[in-house]
Design goal:
The structure holds two protein chains of two kinds. In chain A, helix 6 packs across helix 14 and helix 9 crosses helix 15. Chain A has a single domain, classed as Amino acid/polyamine transporter I (Up-down Bundle), CATH 1.20.1740. Chain A contains 19 helices and no strands. Chain A is 68% helix and 0% strand. By secondary structure, chain A is mostly helical. The longest helix of chain B is centred in the last third of the chain and has 20 residues. Chain B has ten helices and four strands, in the order H-H-E-E-H-H-H-E-E-H-H-H-H-H. In chain B, strand 3 and strand 4 form a beta hairpin. Classes of the chains: A mainly alpha, B mainly alpha.
């Protein structure tokens, strides 16, 4: 029969590819979490203001380079493990399950705090915008409105659909290009200066801690690997998209930071940033563009922060769902809503945690931009940096144990360089962390945060050891993600786990 | 409509029964995320071929045991595809492929048997054809599908392989709570569930496990 000839076009592959994601969709998914406009308007001005150092543009470019290096090994490894999970599953594959659970315990507060921090930015920016219209609303009230929306959308598992996200992102990117052009076209003192791009500035003492602030602006790009089973060509789509996401975010942030310094003048940028905070960009472009362009900027800034809030909320909920399914967290976290597939417990946990933290801040009367946004995202950023560092070590270890799976550059050189660079960044960050939070010399916050991460990691190690003793069959599938029972690497013979009374997918019945 | 009644031990009804459990009898809507339902139906269709002795699953790959055409048109069609595409052996690839239109194709088969009727709904920009039980007799047969499973479980009756595969797929895709919905009455059944599925032949258990894994990754990615 002619049909048995396999040479003809393969209808299976074509039919499968039709419904799957191409590179642009995956890039949008990754960049939505990184939210370039949020970073440019919210974070860059904050870094200028808080650090008082003008090396911001070059720092973003350096971070983009480090993360690109990291991405090489990261996506190479993603091709060899069947898992839709996140950093901790890479770590448990590369460094063992005990370290993997420790990483998971670091990841939970890290991502969670980053999301809560963004509420502070949203609240303070929204209340500022409302004030322009003569409406008085506290940052807390604005943040609560956003919180309510995110909580409901999270429970319904409405990830902003790909098309909405694409339109928003393209609008944001266009706006950033317009703003950057305007700022560079009107340089302070009449000439364009490149001094803030000079690598010499990298050797100032603050740079170490600025790197972690910059890295916080990229967080979200690693989520692309979640889509690896949804991509048209799992081998190439994800790799390309992740590189694009890192480069896009890095170039946009670096260029914008440079353009700001050109427009304000490298000597004045810090003072201007301290005076105007999140209004910095709008203040700089305001005199040179029509009012409408500034207004559009405000609207897009708010939608960008909101998209980031939603993306982080989904990421946190997904993390808890993955851990619940694997039995690291109680099984309730592994249940989803049957029809929508929303990870209910994860979503609820994050919402409740967020409202508690925000209320505590409001009750204490703390300033939202510094203590909610800057502090929490910095603390979260340190956690993510620890995860990246551990993941880069895991990639190295993984390819040592599974040689000849990728070429030398992807399997050894790039992962090793990434590991070294991230080690330097991590060390610099931990040493200078008190400075990042702007606390005085004898404040406990000088050392409290890194120690707290160490403590949660230690709790994770102990938890993993307890699991190994009490529930060895659950322990055996840690880090194997949704594919727990099948598709594991041949090198780890696992005890086949009997089907649960409440298997996966929709464990929404309480047994 | 009586043709969807139980024919014990025969594979032909596996996907039909799953379809009736996975859809609300009054509205025809899927009880699960549509992609989870599709995967469950795809697994049920593969399961039918396995029960009929046409294919086997060995370590994640589908192997064709017999090329003799099955009596059912849909099963025949799928077996032909499996034979024509020898380069694809991975169970998960086939689950993903078959899940794309499994709901329509099983719905059509049920329609041919007279167990459901096509109902066309207008949506905002498109129309959607649902296959749902419309007459009283059809509704009875549809409601019987989950009740029959629950009944057998509660009474501890001996279940055929086909029914145990059905049970495994129901559990793996997250339909358990629609079959065993009463915590008190069904308590014993819930306790029996793991052993009923665990006692399946190994390739059937593998099918259930791959379905469970596929449903998991589809839900983790959270795409429509």
């Amino acid at each position: 029969m002619a049909r048995q000839d396999a040479a003809e076009p393969d209808i299976i592959s074509r039919a499968l590819a039709k419904n799957r994601l191409g590179v642009p969709s995956v890039v949008f998914f990754g960049v939505a979490g990184a939210a370039p406009l949020t970073v440019i308007i919210g974070a860059i001005s904050a870094i200028y203001a808080i650090m008082g150092n003008t090396a911001v543009p070059i720092v973003y470019l350096v971070v983009a380079a480090i993360l690109s290096m990291f991405t090489v090994g990261f996506v190479a490894m993603s091709r060899h493990i069947v898992n839709s999970g996140a950093f901790y599953s890479y770590i448990s594959h590369g460094l063992g399950r005990v370290v993997g659970v420790g990483a998971a315990f670091v990841a939970l507060p890290a991502y969670s705090l980053m999301q809560i921090g963004l509420f502070g930015l949203f609240g303070s920016a929204a209340s500022g915008i409302l004030a322009e219209f003569g409406l008085r609303a506290s940052w807390y009230a604005c943040a609560l409105v956003a919180w309510g929306l995110v909580a409901v959308l999270g429970l319904l598992w409405v990830d902003l659909s790909g098309k909405v996200l694409a339109v928003l992102l393209i609008a944001e990117i266009s706006l950033v290009i317009i703003y950057d052009t305007v700022m560079v076209a009107h340089p302070a003192g009449g000439h364009v200066t490149f001094s803030t791009l000079s690598p010499a500035a990298l050797f100032t003492p603050e740079v170490g801690s600025m790197l972690v602030l910059a890295i916080a602006g990229f967080v979200g790009f690693e989520a692309t690997v979640v889509l690896s089973e949804e991509a048209k060509d799992p081998k190439r789509t994800i790799a390309r998209a992740t590189h694009w996401a890192v480069l896009l975010a890095g170039l946009m942030c670096g260029l914008s930071a440079w353009a700001m310094s050109v427009n304000a003048g490298p000597g004045q940028i810090v003072a201007v940033a301290q005076a105007h905070r999140t209004d910095l960009v709008f203040f700089l472009v305001g005199p040179h563009v029509p009012v409408a362009i500034v207004d559009i900027g405000y609207v897009l800034f708010m939608t960008s922060v909101f998209a980031a809030l939603l993306a982080f909320h989904a990421a946190v909920a997904r993390y808890q769902f993955a851990l619940g399914r694997e039995g690291v967290l109680p099984a309730a976290w592994g249940r989803t809503h049957p029809r929508t597939g929303a990870p209910l417990m994860g979503s609820l946990t994050q919402s409740i945690l967020a409202v508690l933290v925000l209320s505590a801040y409001a009750w204490a009367g703390a300033e939202p931009l510094v203590y909610v946004f800057a502090w929490l995202t910095t603390i979260g950023g340190l956690g993510v940096l620890i995860l990246m560092w551990a993941a880069s070590a895991a990639v190295v270890a993984f390819f040592v144990r599974h040689p000849n799976r990728e070429n030398m550059w992807r399997a050894q050189i790039a992962p090793f360089c990434a590991f070294l660079l991230l080690s330097v960044v991590l060390a610099a960050t931990v040493i200078g962390f008190g400075e990042l939070l702007q606390v005085s010399g004898n404040s406990p916050f000088q050392w409290l945060v890194p120690v707290a991460y160490l403590a949660v990691a230690a709790v994770g190690f102990v938890w993993a050891l307890m699991m190994r003793a009490a529930r060895p069959e659950t322990y055996a599938v840690i880090g194997r993600g949704a594919d727990g029972r099948v598709g594991v690497l041949p090198e780890s013979p696992i005890v086949p786990k009997g089907l649960h009374a409440d298997p996966v997918g929709a464990r929404s019945f309480h047994y | 409509m009586l043709s969807v009644e139980v024919t014990k031990g025969c594979g032909g009804v596996l996907a039909d029964q799953y379809f009736l459990i996975a859809h609300e009898d009054r509205t025809g809507r899927s009880r699960l995320h549509p992609r989870a339902t599709g995967l469950g139906l795809a697994a049920a269709l593969l399961g039918e071929l396995m029960l009929d002795g046409r294919v086997r699953i060995i370590e994640g790959d589908i192997h064709i045991v017999s090329r003799q055409p099955p009596g059912d048109a849909l099963a025949h069609d799928i077996l032909d595809l499996l034979i024509a595409q020898p380069q694809h052996r991975d169970v998960r690839t086939w689950l993903a492929f078959l899940s794309q239109d499994a709901a329509i194709r099983v719905g059509e088969r049920l329609m041919r048997f007279g167990a459901v009727q096509p109902v066309t709904r207008r949506k905002m920009l498109s129309t959607q054809t649902l296959y749902m039980p419309n007459t009283a007799a059809q509704r009875n047969a549809a409601a019987w599908a989950p009740a029959r499973l629950a009944n057998m479980m509660v009474r501890g009756m001996q279940m055929s392989i086909s029914d145990r595969v059905l049970l495994g797929l129901v559990a793996a895709t997250g339909l358990t709570r629609y079959v065993l919905y009463d915590f008190e009455v069904h308590r014993s059944a819930l306790l029996l569930l793991p052993s009923a599925v665990g006692s399946l032949p190994s390739d059937m258990r593998e099918l259930v496990e791959y379905t469970e894994a596929s449903v998991g990754s589809v839900l983790t990615a959270g795409r429509r």
